[in-house]
Specification:
The complex is a heterotrimer. By secondary structure, chain A is mainly α. In chain A, helix 1 crosses helix 6. Chain B is globular, with a radius of gyration of 20 Å. The longest helix of chain B is centred in the first third of the chain and has 18 residues. In chain B, strands 2-1-3-4 form a 4-stranded parallel sheet, with helices on both faces. A 4-stranded parallel sheet of chain B has the order 6-5-7-8. Chain C is of the alpha/beta class. Chain C has 2 domains: 160 residues, FAD/NAD(P)-binding domain (3-Layer(bba) Sandwich), CATH 3.50.50; 153 residues, FAD/NAD(P)-binding domain, CATH 3.50.50. In chain C, the strands form 7 sheets. In chain C, strands 10-17-11-12-13 form a 5-stranded parallel sheet. In chain C, strands 5-6-7 form a 3-stranded antiparallel sheet. A 3-stranded antiparallel sheet of chain C has the order 14-15-16, with no helix packed on it. Classes of the chains: A mainly alpha, B alpha/beta, C alpha/beta. The interface between A and C is medium-sized, with 21 and 16 residues.
C-alpha cells in the first residue's frame, strides 16, 4: 500500500436501506408515542441537560428513526430524567419512557 | 426505463453549433496529461472532415483554474477572455471552440455577464485596450469541441473502420458517459440535451455502435473542483467523489468511460491507480481498471488511427483491453517509442492494477 | 355547479356551459375527500342533482367568442346557439402541473413514478396497487411540492391541498398494503384545515407513516427496477439515500387552459401566478376588473372541494345582490383536463 499523503474521505450519506433500524422498531413497538414526534424541538428547548452537555432529544429521535445509532449509547446517559420535556411536548410523547426504553434497547441490541 | 421519455427532453435542448471555420482554444490540463488527444482532434477536423481550424500560438489559458480556486479576481479573468476573443477577431474568425469544459463554462459565463451588464463589457474593453492595445468582437458562436464532434458524428461513422462492438461476444460495448460539470450544469440551455440527461456523449456512443449505461451516480461530480484539489492533504475529498462513481458503475460492468472534460478523464484515470494502491481495489475485469477516454480519442479509435498516435501510452489505466475487445491492432513494442523509434524508457510497474508491458 | 344551484334557488335563470361531456371537473376523478374520507362521487351526485333541479346545462361547449352589448354578454359556441346573459360567472378551474418538467424526478422516463391524480384514479378504479413488474410495493414514497413553491417551475405559490392529500393517500396505501412502508418527503406539512392535523397524527400513530423533512434531488431506476432516491434530510443535516418501489409526485395546481382562454377573451386581469385576480381579496373576492364578470373556485387560487363550494355560494350572493336584477344568467366553463 502506498501513502500518497491523504486518505479517502468517508461518505456522509445516510444509507437508509443498510442502516440497522432495530432499535427504532423496538421503540415503535414498546413506546408507541415514539411515532408521533414531529421534531418541533420543544423538548430540547426545555431540556436541563442540554444547557450543559450536548444532549439533544429532538436530534436523537430523528437519528434513531434513520438508524444512525453510533453516538446513541454515550449520548443517552446524559439525560437526568427530570421530565421537563414530557411536560412540554405538544404532541404528548412519553419522553421519559422513551429514554428508559432506549436503555433497554441498547442492552438488547448491543452494538460493539 | 422508457427511453422515449429521455428523447423528448433531448429534443427540448438543442443548440446551434457552427459548421466550419473554428478558432481552437487548447486546454491547459489536457495538453500536459493527454497530449495526443488534441492532436487527434486537429487531425480529425482538418484531415478527415476538411474543416478550417485555426490553432493560435499566442493564446493563453482562460484562467479557469485560477478563477475557480480564488487566486485571480474575476476582472482579470474577463480581461484574459477578452484577449482570447481579440486574437480570434484578429485571425478573422467568429466561431470559438474551447477544448476544455471549464473554459467553455468560463466563456459562457463571461458572455452571459456581458449581455446582462453591458457596462461591465465596456469596462473590460477598456482594460484590454490599456493593457495590450487590442480590441475584440464577441464570438458569434461558442461551442465546445465535443459539440463539434457530436455534430459530425455521422460523418465520422461514414469514415469509420471500427464499431464499438465486442468482437468476442458480438454485443455492443457498454460505455459510461460522464459530462464535465461546467458543460450544462451552469447553463442547461447551452448543453446538448440539457443538464439532467445530456445527449452530447450519448449521441456519439449510440452513433458508433455502443450502448450507453445509466447508473445511479451518473450526475455526480468527479471531484476535480479546483479549490480543494490544489492542497495535497485535501485530495481525500476529491478521490472520494470519483470512488463513489466507480463503486456505483461497477455492477454494470462498463467497458469504457467516455468524458468530454480534460479534468475528469485525468481524475478517473489517475484515481483508479491511486485507489488500487491505497485500497487494493480495481474496477474492471481481471485486475484491470476501466479505460477512460475522451471524445476525440474515441473518435480516433473508431476511425482506425494508431493507438499510440492518439496518445494512449500516457493513460495510467491501460486501454489495451478495450482495443482487444474491438479488435484494433496495435504494436506493443511501439508503445514507449518516440519518433524515429527512439526508446523513451518505461514507467515503473503498478503493484495492483494490471500492467501492460 | 354549487353557484348555479344557489342562483337558481334564488330565482335566477341559470345556464351552465360546460366544456367537456360531463359536469364536475376534477371532482369526478377523486376517490375520497379529506378530512373525513367521504367518497368524492357522493358530493358530485349531490351537486349534480341540485344543478339539474334549477339550471339548464349545455355540455360540450367550445366557446369561440364573447360579445358585449347594452344588456350584458352574448356567448358564442361551436355547438350551441348563442347564449345571452346579464352576468357571467367564470369557474374554469385548474389543470395539474406537468410533472414531466421536473426532469430530475424522471417521470415518463423511469418506471413506477406516478402523480397523485393517477393514484386517485387507481384507488377509485379499484385497481390493484402493483409495480410495473407486477410485484406488490414494499415501499412507497411521496414527494410534496412538485411544481409548487418552485421558482424553477415558474410557480411560487403553494398549492394548498397537496399536503393533506398526501397524508390521506399515505393512509389509503397503508390500509391496502399493510406490509408496505410509506415515506413522505416534505418541506412543510400544511395542515391548515379542521381535522387535518388530526389526520396527520393518525397517519403517524396508527399507520406508522414516516415523514422525512427534505427535498428530493433526484430519482433513479436501479437495475432491479426499484427507484433510488437522494434526499436532503434537513433534520439531521445530511444527505440520505433510500430505495422505494413506487414514487408518487404531488403535482400542484396551475390555472387551466380554459382559464387562460376565457380571461384573454374577456380581458380579465391575472395575478403574477396567472390565476384570475379578484377585485379585492377580502370584500369582493368574487368580482373581477370587468363589471358583470364574476369568478369562483380554483380559477382564482388553488382550493379544496370544500373551499370551492363555499366560494361558489359567495359568488352567487354577489351576483344576486348586484344590479341589474332579476333576469340573470350564469355561465361556467370548466377547464380542459389532460
Amino acid at each position: 500500500m502506498i501513502n500518497f499523503g491523504y486518505t479517502i474521505n468517508t461518505d456522509r450519506q445516510i444509507d437508509y436501506d443498510n442502516n440497522d433500524r432495530r432499535i427504532a422498531a423496538f421503540l415503535s413497538e414498546h413506546e408507541p408515542t415514539f411515532r408521533i414526534c414531529i421534531s418541533c424541538g420543544t423538548c430540547t428547548a426545555t431540556c436541563s441537560a442540554g444547557n450543559f452537555t450536548y444532549f439533544n432529544l429532538r436530534e436523537m429521535i430523528v437519528m434513531l428513526k434513520r438508524g444512525e445509532t453510533r453516538q446513541l449509547k454515550e449520548d443517552v446517559t446524559k439525560c437526568m430524567l427530570c421530565g421537563k420535556c414530557q411536560m412540554a411536548c405538544p404532541r404528548g410523547v412519553n419522553t421519559r419512557n422513551l429514554i428508559l426504553s432506549i436503555h433497554r434497547a441498547i442492552e438488547r441490541f448491543e452494538q460493539p | 426505463m422508457n427511453i422515449e421519455g429521455k428523447r423528448v427532453i433531448w429534443k427540448d435542448y438543442q443548440k446551434e453549433i457552427a459548421d466550419d471555420r473554428y478558432f481552437y482554444a487548447r486546454s491547459c490540463v489536457r495538453q500536459s496529461f493527454f497530449p495526443g488527444a488534441e492532436a487527434t482532434f486537429l487531425r480529425i477536423l482538418r484531415g478527415e472532415l476538411g474543416k478550417e481550424l485555426h490553432d493560435e500560438p499566442y493564446h493563453t489559458t482562460c484562467t479557469g483554474i485560477a478563477y475557480h480556486a480564488d487566486v485571480v479576481p474575476f476582472d482579470t479573468t474577463m480581461t484574459v477572455v477578452a484577449r482570447q476573443f481579440a486574437l480570434m477577431t484578429e485571425a478573422g474568425y467568429e466561431n470559438f471552440v474551447p477544448s476544455c469544459i471549464t473554459s467553455f463554462g468560463v466563456y459562457s459565463e463571461v458572455l452571459d455577464i456581458w449581455e446582462r451588464f453591458p457596462e461591465t463589457e465596456k469596462r473590460v474593453r477598456d482594460y484590454l485596450k490599456r493593457a495590450t492595445g487590442r480590441t475584440f468582437e464577441k464570438p458569434r458562436n461558442l461551442a465546445h469541441a465535443s459539440d463539434v464532434i457530436y455534430k459530425f458524428r455521422k460523418e465520422i461513422t461514414r469514415r469509420a473502420k471500427y464499431r464499438l462492438v465486442n468482437r468476442f461476444t458480438g454485443r455492443p460495448l457498454k460505455g459510461v458517459e460522464h459530462i464535465g460539470c461546467h458543460y450544462a450544469k451552469m447553463f442547461p440551455s447551452k448543453g446538448v440535451g440539457g443538464a439532467e440527461y445530456p445527449y452530447v456523449l450519448v449521441g456519439m456512443i449510440e452513433e458508433w455502435g455502443g450502448d450507453v449505461v445509466d447508473y445511479p451516480e451518473r450526475r455526480h461530480c468527479c471531484g476535480f473542483g479546483f479549490r480543494q484539489y490544489v492542497v495535497q492533504a485535501n485530495r481525500g475529498y476529491s478521490i472520494a467523489c470519483s470512488k463513489k462513481k466507480f463503486e456505483s458503475m461497477e455492477p454494470y460492468h462498463p467497458d469504457f468511460i467516455l468524458t468530454n472534460c480534460p479534468g475528469c478523464p485525468f481524475f478517473f484515470d489517475r484515481w483508479q491507480y491511486a485507489i488500487s494502491e491505497m485500497e487494493g481495489k480495481t474496477y474492471g475485469e481481471d485486475g484491470n481498471g476501466i479505460p477512460v477516454l475522451t471524445y476525440e480519442e474515441l473518435a480516433g479509435i473508431v476511425l482506425g488511427y494508431d493507438p499510440w498516435d492518439i496518445g494512449f501510452q500516457t493513460h495510467q489505466v491501460p486501454v489495451e483491453p478495450l482495443l482487444d475487445k474491438i479488435g484494433i491492432p496495435y504494436d506493443p513494442d511501439m508503445k514507449y517509442r518516440g519518433r524515429n523509434g527512439e526508446d523513451l524508457g518505461r514507467p515503473a510497474p503498478t503493484n495492483v492494477l494490471r500492467f501492460y508491458k | 355547479m354549487e353557484a348555479a344551484a344557489t342562483l337558481a334557488a334564488g330565482g335566477l335563470t341559470v345556464t351552465v356551459m360546460e366544456k367537456t361531456d360531463h359536469l364536475g371537473g376534477h371532482l369526478a376523478d377523486w376517490y375520497h375527500l379529506f378530512p373525513d374520507r367521504r367518497p368524492g362521487r357522493e358530493v358530485l351526485q349531490l351537486l349534480t342533482k341540485r344543478v339539474q333541479e334549477g339550471a339548464s346545462v349545455l355540455l360540450n361547449c367550445d366557446v369561440t367568442d364573447i360579445e358585449r352589448n347594452k344588456e350584458g354578454f352574448v356567448i358564442h359556441t361551436r355547438q350551441h346557439p348563442p347564449v345571452e346573459a346579464q352576468a357571467l360567472l367564470v369557474a374554469t378551474g385548474f389543470d395539474l402541473f406537468e410533472v414531466r418538467k421536473k426532469e430530475e424526478y424522471g417521470y415518463g422516463i423511469y418506471d413506477n413514478i406516478i402523480t397523485s391524480a393517477e393514484l386517485e384514479k387507481m384507488l377509485s378504479g379499484g385497481q390493484p396497487l402493483l409495480t410495473t413488474r407486477g410485484t406488490v410495493p414494499r415501499r412507497v414514497g411521496f414527494v410534496h411540492c412538485v411544481g409548487s413553491r418552485d421558482a424553477k417551475a415558474g410557480n411560487l405559490y403553494c398549492s394548498r391541498v397537496c399536503c393533506i392529500t398526501a397524508v390521506k393517500q399515505a393512509i389509503e396505501i397503508r390500509e391496502r398494503l399493510p406490509q408496505a412502508e410509506v415515506f413522505s418527503f416534505y418541506m412543510d406539512l400544511r395542515m391548515y384545515g379542521m381535522g387535518f392535523e388530526e389526520l396527520y397524527k393518525e397517519a403517524q400513530e396508527k399507520w406508522a407513516v414516516n415523514f422525512i423533512r427534505g427535498r428530493l434531488s433526484e430519482a433513479f431506476e436501479n437495475q432491479d427496477g426499484t427507484l433510488m432516491l437522494k434526499v436532503e434530510d434537513t433534520l439531521t443535516a445530511r444527505p440520505l439515500r433510500m430505495n422505494v418501489d413506487l414514487l408518487v409526485l404531488m403535482a400542484g395546481m396551475v390555472p387551466s387552459a380554459g382559464t387562460k382562454e376565457i380571461s384573454r377573451m374577456l380581458g380579465l386581469e391575472l395575478e403574477e401566478s396567472r390565476f384570475i385576480r379578484p377585485r379585492d381579496r377580502h370584500m369582493s373576492p368574487n368580482r373581477t376588473n370587468i363589471p358583470g364578470v364574476f369568478i369562483a373556485g380554483s380559477c382564482t387560487a388553488p382550493m379544496s372541494v370544500a373551499d370551492t363550494i363555499a366560494d361558489a355560494r359567495g359568488a352567487a350572493v354577489e351576483i344576486m345582490t348586484s344590479p341589474p336584477a332579476p333576469l340573470l344568467e350564469r355561465r361556467g366553463e370548466k377547464g380542459v383536463r389532460s
